[in-house]
Design goal:
By secondary structure, the chain is α/β, with parallel strands linked by helices. It has seven helices and eight strands. It has one domain: Rossmann fold (3-Layer(aba) Sandwich), CATH 3.40.50.300. Strands 4-5-6-1-7-8 form a six-stranded mixed beta sheet, with helices on both faces. It has a two-stranded antiparallel ribbon with strand order 2-3. Helix 3 packs across helix 4 and helix 5 packs parallel to helix 6. The longest helix has 16 residues.
Length: 214
């Protein structure tokens, strides 16, 4: 017999506007990561409706979801998730390998993403040959190379020292000011203060929200 059913999320009603910078906070087990996985089409909601850019993604096939993840969503993880045997440039280019018809100017897009995060001189280095902050920048470049509709970040500064973390938050703010929609899970008060709006989750529910800045 299976174990007890766990309701990670309980009737979340959420709208994220284009160009918004949304923070999600809450204790461990509150549903933050699950919500991010649903938004990123990594998990399917067991009920309800999820629209991304007007498309109901709740009932799409695995192939269709993979295509959406490859073209409309960028992920930034706390642990970077870079392929150690690949250079920074090769890691940044990885999303194009999952597209059935990658753009003809993919190489230019990779170079542009690398330059946007300040790694122009690090493209040929392996992840082990660059600093933790530079690895996170490479992960951000990989996430934005396809010009996604939304950038999802799960504790993007959690493994970084305070100065490097501040640099990453400044980069996020620059990306948001350029039009990128960002949803960020964080335990950091400093990080949440960069957001337009912050949701607080408790036991799979939105327990409150705070407007931080316009």
């Amino acid at each position: 017999m299976g174990g007890p059913i766990v309701h990670a999320l309980r009737g979340i009603d959420l709208k994220v506007l284009a160009g918004e910078y949304l923070g999600i906070i809450g204790p461990s087990g509150s549903g933050k990561s699950t919500l991010l996985q649903v938004l990123g089409c990594l998990e399917r909601p067991t009920s309800g409706l999820y629209r991304l850019n007007g498309t109901d993604v709740s009932a799409l096939s695995d192939t269709e979801l993979s295509r959406i993840r490859a073209t409309q969503i960028g992920f930034v993880f706390q642990t970077f998730n870079l392929i150690p045997q690949c250079t920074v440039r090769e890691n940044v280019a990885m999303p194009f390998f999952y597209q059935p018809n990658p753009p003809t100017d993919a190489e230019r897009l990779v170079e542009r993403a690398i330059e946007r995060v300040g790694l122009r001189d690090r493209g040929h280095h392996l992840p082990a040959q660059v600093s933790g902050g530079e690895r996170q920048r490479a992960a951000i470049a990989r996430a934005i190379v396809v010009n996604p509709a939304v950038l999802l970040a799960d504790e993007p500064t959690g493994n970084l020292d305070s100065r490097t973390g501040a640099d990453i938050l400044l980069l996020f703010s620059t990306l948001n000011e350029a039009g990128t929609t960002i949803v960020m899970v964080t335990h950091s008060r400093e990080a949440s203060q960069c957001c337009h709006r912050v949701l607080r989750l408790t036991d799979g529910l939105i327990a409150g929200q705070e407007e931080m800045r316009s």
